[in-house]
Amino acid sequence: MSDFQLTTYTDGETQHVAEKLAPLMRPGDVITLEGDLGAGKTTFAKGIARGLGVKRNVNSPTFTIIKEYEGELPFYHMDVYRLEDTDEDIGFDEYFNGDGVCVVEWAHFIEEFLPESYLAISISYADEHSRVLTFSPGNEHYKSIAAELTGEW
Ligand code: ADP
Ligand code: MG
């Protein structure tokens, strides 16, 4: 399936893209976020939270691995960086097959636990304030979301 791309020029723009993506999500949807430290994964996750109507402040869950928030749908924000070199399963299935939206930073570290289909988003650093966002949809549902998002941007 083909990829979709867009470039953002400020962190606010990255959040805005994510905010527009949020209402297109369904219960049980999974988004993976890849990119170097400082690429903008947590920035993107904050935008999704805002778009889902999460009121609480969203911080990086690096030390807790998973943080749960209440929004129009439950929002599960994961940062699995610390699971590198382990094959620890912290009950991912229940989240991925649950009733909320899951966003997973550094998802390749838990590749074996990821669902069959998800929306993979890779953020790469172009310059200090510019980022290239690449959307790789795993099925038609995610493809239509990626197309809508990048088409109207
Ligand atoms: P990660 O979770 O990938 O480590 P963060 O979202 O925590 O990254 O940090 C991204 C940093 O880059 C923030 O300081 C943010 O302000 C900055 N930044 C600058 N330009 C952008 C942009 N276009 N999109 C996202 N973040 C940006
Ligand atoms: Mg982060």
UniProtKB/TrEMBL annotation:
Q: Where in the cell is it found?
A: Cytoplasm
Q: Which InterPro entries match?
A: P-loop_NTPase (IPR027417), T6A_TsaE (IPR003442)
One Pfam family, short name = TsaE
Fetch the Gene3D superfamilies from UniProt: P-loop containing nucleotide triphosphate hydrolases
Instruction: For this UniProt record, give its keywords in alphabetical order, as a comma-separated list.
Output: ATP-binding, Cytoplasm, Magnesium, Metal-binding, Nucleotide-binding, tRNA processing
Q: Which PANTHER family does the annotation name?
A: TRNA THREONYLCARBAMOYLADENOSINE BIOSYNTHESIS PROTEIN TSAE
Which NCBIfam families does the record cross-reference, listed alphabetically? T6A_YjeE (TIGR00150)
Similarity comment: family membership: Belongs to the TsaE family.
- State what protein this is by name: tRNA threonylcarbamoyladenosine biosynthesis protein TsaE
Q: Which organism is it from?
A: Lentibacillus juripiscarius
Report the gene name.
tsaE
